[in-house]
Write a structure and sequence with these properties.
- The chain is mostly helical.
- The chain has 2 domains: 8-95, no CATH class; 102-190, no CATH class.
- It is 59% helix and 0% strand.
- It has 9 helices and no strands.
- It has helices at residues 8-28, 34-50, 61-77, 86-93, 98-114, 119-122, 155-164, 168-171, 176-190.
């Protein structure tokens, strides 16, 4: 962590380590077909990019781009996909961008807090809006006002805007597994 309590250095180290592993894969694997390279990437590279991502969520766009650049490079290495755009490559492979993956993890954690999985830790973490006149879902969260801009990057503030935009059927899910399945469909329109 830096002097100003940001995680830029940690993001750069994670990207550097993932890039090194990606280089090892590129040099040692003869065939870069989808069947070979995607399991290597998923097992060896992506965990470095996603490790503790909810805790050290990149605060600046440059930090997000550093890590996303590693994934872009890995997707370009796969044969027959190198000429597609990044979004088309991800769609073809059934993967999320790292930003969408972070959001998916944040919303899943928020669901667990709101449904009482972490009762003692989650008390007072979120405040529900007291209004029946909500457009999208009936479980909207209240946004607080803060003097410092750094507060905008906290977990609760990152999640609130996206949570309030989720459809009713996702928010009212009876279990975490059902929520995850419904969230996958809803995320395609969120980010």
């Amino acid at each position: 962590m830096g002097e100003k309590l940001n995680m830029s250095q940690q993001s750069a180290l994670a990207a550097q380590k993932a890039n090194c592993i990606l280089g090892y894969i590129k040099r040692s694997v003869a065939s870069m077909s989808r069947k070979v390279s995607l399991p290597f990437y998923s097992a060896l590279v992506r965990p470095h990019l996603e490790y503790c991502i909810q805790l050290r969520s990149p605060q600046h766009k440059k930090d997000m781009d550093v890590m996303e650049r590693v994934q872009r490079g890995a997707m370009k290495m796969i044969k027959r996909l190198e000429y597609l755009s990044y979004k088309d490559r991800l769609r073809e492979l059934g993967l999320f961008s790292l930003e969408k993956s972070r959001l998916w993890g944040d919303l899943t954690a928020a669901f667990q807090y709101l449904k009482g999985a972490y009762r003692k830790d989650g008390e007072g973490l979120f405040t529900r809006v007291c209004s029946d006149r909500t457009r999208r879902n009936g479980f909207k969260l209240k946004e607080g006002r803060f003097r410092l801009d750094i507060r905008k990057k906290f977990f609760t503030m990152r999640v609130m805007k996206h949570w309030n935009r989720l459809p009713r059927e996702a928010v009212d899910a009876p279990s975490l597994e059902v929520f995850k399945a419904r969230l996958d469909g809803a995320l395609s329109s969120l980010v």
